[in-house]
Amino acid sequence: MKLSYFHVAGDVPDDAHSQTAVVIDVLRATTTIACALNNGAEAVQTFADLTELQNESSDWKSSLRLLLGERGGKMIDGFDLGNSPVAVTSDVVKGKRLFMSTTNGTRSLKRVSDTKVVYTMALINRRAVAEKLLLNQPEDVLILGSGWEGSYSLEDSLAAGALAAFLMESPGNSCKVINDELLAAIALWSACKNDIEGCLRKTTHGQRLERLGNHDDDFLCCSELDSISIVPTQREKGVLFSL
Ligand code: 3SL
Question: Which residues does ligand 1 sit against, CB inside 6 Å?
Answer without folding.
Answer: 25, 27-29, 70, 73, 83, 102-105, 146
